[in-house]
Amino acid sequence: MSGINGRKTNSVRNPYGNLNSGNSSSGSVHHLSNLDEFEGNNHLRRLIRNGELEEGFRFLETMVYRGDIPDIISCTSLIRGFCRLGKTKKASKVLEILEESGAVPDVITYNVLISGYCKAGEVDNALRVLDRMSVAPDVVTFNTILRALCDSGKLKQAMEVLDKQLQKECYPDVITYTILIEATCEESGVGQAMKLLDEMRNKGCKPDVVTYNVLINGICKEGRLDEALKFLNNMPSYGCQPNVITHNIILRSMCSTGRWMDAERLLAEMLRKGCAPSVVTFNILINFLCRKGLLGRAIDILEKMPQHGCTPNSLSYNPLLHGFCREKKMDRAIEYLDVMVSRGCYPDIVTYNTLLTALCKDGKVDLAVEILNQLSSKGCTPVLITYNTVIDERSGVRPNAITYNAIMLGLCKARETARAIDFLAYMLAKRCKPTEVTYTILIEGVAYEGLAKEALDLLNELCSRGLVKKSSAEQI
């Protein structure tokens, strides 16, 4: 049925009851009767901008119930917000309300919902939205769905969607073909992917460097490195210059097959052509040299990075540390840990786990614990694997209360007292009896987090059970 002003009467419920009755509740939403459509949309925008999505949803329902037509952009933002939270059903409901209001969603609105479904792994729902769109889908719509299908290994279904795209006279772009070429390389090999490349060119769609990088990566994965090099050299004749990623793909393949001399020549050729190497370029080389035990040459590469405008990161140092640890050169490993920090490169959890594992296997548990307790001051929060490294990899030496206490002290200093308490349970499960120091550390940790009353209550409870002496309690 048609309503006032030719607007479609809809079945959207009013979540606030009859707003025109004298029993309306107070609050901004309940004064909707005093707002016109323009002010209502402004209010809806404010709610969404402030992240009040649920309130925005209820307000949207009320607007449409009154016969107001909501703003498309605001509703699209609301759909995007729900999708980001993984609430795709709620996002879909917003679209339904929007359609029922008499408003016509644009292609961006549909694309946002389709993208939300695809990111949530709900490709079937995305396809259903595609089939019922009230406006013509664009190439972004199809690319989003094709990417999701290809990422989940459904190339055949993706090709069917491509046929549907062509039927709708929505012509594929370079992104469309690159998505399909990458999936074809994975599923059917580079030979089939090359046929798609030919089709792409025949249809007047020019491949870009990303397209060629995908093909070169596929050729390298098939072990045809010389062919990949030939492809690289031919790229300028195709009207496309290789970039640093192109070279990195081939460098990685050279290193993985032990062709170090070729890798050095390729790096020199990159520099000659003015293609600046990236941190990834150097990390590939450092990783290879360290795996081969050529730590001195790896250090040379590391030291040259700043000359090329690259700052080493933790992935530059980690292979070196691992190499030193493998050769039981613990002093050198600790020395390079200090070098990292002095240069403003903070170790990540892989750095610490590498070093801690080696120290514990070498029987140097006290040093491992000392390093573990420096984690928080170095900007690296410990994780369970780090503690397990110290506790479980002691070359058969059973950890004692001192080891556990040191770890709990580190956690408490990092304001991770809840995890320290969990670690107490782990300690008990390992049949290691806590000491008075164990409990004292936990009490001080609770107090350090600003829970003085709780800390005092815990202290009194432990004193009453005889786990902490009164003389010790007076010193806390």
UniProtKB/TrEMBL annotation:
Q: Where is the composition biased (Low complexity)?
A: 17-32
Q: Pfam families, alphabetically?
A: PPR_1, PPR_2
The record's GO molecular-function terms, alphabetically, read:
mRNA binding
- Start and stop residues of the PPR repeats: 71-105, 106-136, 138-172, 173-207, 208-242, 243-277, 278-312, 313-347, 348-382, 400-434, 435-469
Q: Which InterPro entries match?
A: PPR_rpt, TPR-like_helical_dom_sf
> What domain of life?
Eukaryota
Query: What ranges does the record give for the region Disordered, renumbered to this chain?
Result: 1-32
Gene3D superfamilies named in the record? Tetratricopeptide repeat domain (1.25.40.10)
Keywords on this record? Repeat
Q: Which family does it belong to?
A: Belongs to the PPR family. P subfamily.
Name by which UniProt lists this protein: Pentatricopeptide repeat
Source species of the chain? Dillenia turbinata
